[in-house]
C-alpha cells in the first residue's frame, strides 16, 4: 500500500514541466530514481537526491520565469533532452561519491536544464518575430504536453510589398476573415473595417543602422501610432492585435 501511495505521489509530481513531455523521460528518470541509493557514501544524500529527482518537473516550471507561454518545439525539446540525459548518464557512471557531491551535481544539471529550456523557448519566438508578417509554428505545451502552436507578427519586412502582405495577413488573423488591402486605403476621415480613420497614403521611408526598410502609409497613419516604425522593432502579435482592436 505504501509503495502504491509512493507511485501515486511520483505521478502527481511529474504532472508539470517541459522535459517530462519527452518520450524517454519516464524511462530515464525511473532509472535515475531507482539507482540513487548507490551513488553516495553518505546516507543523508539519498533522500535529498530522491527529492530532487521527484520534484524535477514541478521545480522546472517554477524556475522558468518566462513572460511568454512555456511552449517548446519538438526539435528543441529533443535537443534539450539529449543534453540533459548525457549529463545525467555521465553522473551515474561513477560508482560512489563522497558526501554532498551527488546532490550538488544534480542541482547543477537541473539549473543547466532550466537554462537550456529558457533559451530554446525564447530563441524560437525570436526566430519567429524575425520573419515578415504572421507566422505560426508547432509546439508542445510544457504545462500538459499537448500539441499547441505559437503565432507571432514578424517585423523583418524589407519592402512596401512585403509590408502590404504582412499587414494583410495580420488583419486576416485578428478578425478571422479576409480583408483586401484596398479597403485600408480610404479617403480622409472615412471609416473602414481596418479600424479608425485613415489619411491619404503618404511616403515614408526610414533607416536603421545597416538596414533600409520602406513602410507603407497604412502603418504611419495618425490613427495607428502604435504601428509606426519606432514601435515595430518590439512589436508582438498581442500588441498589434490590441492596437488594431482599439481603432
From TrEMBL:
<protein>
    <submittedName>
        <fullName>IZUMO family member 4</fullName>
    </submittedName>
</protein>
<dbReference type="InterPro" id="IPR029389">
    <property type="entry name" value="IZUMO"/>
</dbReference>
<dbReference type="Pfam" id="PF15005">
    <property type="entry name" value="IZUMO"/>
</dbReference>
<dbReference type="InterPro" id="IPR052868">
    <property type="entry name" value="Izumo_fusion"/>
</dbReference>
<keyword id="KW-0732">Signal</keyword>
<comment type="similarity">
    <text>Belongs to the Izumo family.</text>
</comment>
<feature type="signal peptide">
    <location>
        <begin position="1"/>
        <end position="17"/>
    </location>
</feature>
Amino acid at each position: 500500500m505504501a509503495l502504491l501511495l509512493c507511485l501515486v505521489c511520483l505521478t502527481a509530481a511529474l504532472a508539470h514541466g517541459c522535459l517530462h513531455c519527452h518520450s524517454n523521460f519516464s524511462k530515464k528518470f525511473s532509472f535515475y530514481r531507482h539507482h540513487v541509493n548507490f551513488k553516495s557514501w553518505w546516507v543523508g544524500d539519498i533522500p535529498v537526491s530522491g527529492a530532487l529527482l521527484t520534484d524535477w518537473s514541478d521545480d522546472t516550471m517554477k524556475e522558468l520565469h518566462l513572460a511568454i507561454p512555456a511552449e517548446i518545439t519538438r526539435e528543441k525539446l529533443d535537443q534539450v533532452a539529449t543534453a540533459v540525459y548525457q549529463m545525467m548518464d555521465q553522473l551515474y557512471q561513477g560508482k560512489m561519491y563522497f558526501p554532498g557531491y551527488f546532490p550538488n551535481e544534480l542541482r547543477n544539471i537541473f539549473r543547466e536544464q532550466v537554462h537550456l529550456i529558457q533559451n530554446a523557448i525564447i530563441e524560437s519566438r525570436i526566430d519567429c518575430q524575425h520573419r515578415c508578417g504572421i507566422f505560426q509554428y508547432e509546439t508542445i505545451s510544457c504545462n500538459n504536453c499537448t500539441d499547441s502552436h505559437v503565432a507571432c507578427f514578424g517585423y523583418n519586412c524589407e519592402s512596401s510589398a512585403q509590408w502590404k502582405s504582412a499587414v494583410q495577413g495580420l488583419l486576416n488573423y485578428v478578425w478571422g476573415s479576409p480583408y483586401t488591402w484596398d479597403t485600408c486605403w480610404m479617403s480622409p476621415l472615412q471609416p473602414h473595417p481596418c479600424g479608425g480613420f485613415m489619411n491619404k497614403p503618404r511616403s515614408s521611408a526610414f533607416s536603421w543602422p545597416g538596414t533600409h526598410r520602406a513602410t507603407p502609409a497604412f502603418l504611419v497613419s495618425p490613427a495607428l501610432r502604435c504601428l509606426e516604425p519606432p514601435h515595430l522593432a518590439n512589436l508582438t502579435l498581442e500588441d498589434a492585435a490590441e492596437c488594431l482592436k482599439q481603432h
